[in-house]
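haha ok so turns out i had the wrong file open the whole time. this is the CORRECT one, sorry everyone. sequence first:
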Amino acid sequence: MMLCDSAQVAEGKLFILGGGWSVTGPDPTPSAIAVKLDVDWHEADRPHHWELYLENADGQMVTVPTPEGDQPVEVRGDFQVGRPQGVPEGTPIDLPLAVNFGPIPLPVASRFTWRFTIDGVADQDWRLGFTTRPAADAA
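then structure:
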């Protein structure tokens, strides 16, 4: 997983722009998360569900105002990969994923973590932390 300015998937590959940062702001800006999954050979041809959600430093879900009221910053999806023909049994199957966000209004000088789960399971490596810069002095 990598924080970036934007990402897309084309022809089974991730295309990343402005990747690898961990400090942003203080003003809200578009961002993205690029994910490269290695699907186990024996998990191919099975449906899977993923979730990506944003937490603050206290582990609470970050919410943003919407016309329907405050909503958590989260994205969910499903995937299922097939076993590529001619690839030896046991080979992990690549699955690139790009999730792009518009500007998210976040408190300045704060710490946040994106958390990723697959089928309700989380892993220590499936987290991305970042910090928002303090507001510029109005001098």
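The chain has no helices and twelve strands.
again sry for the mixup
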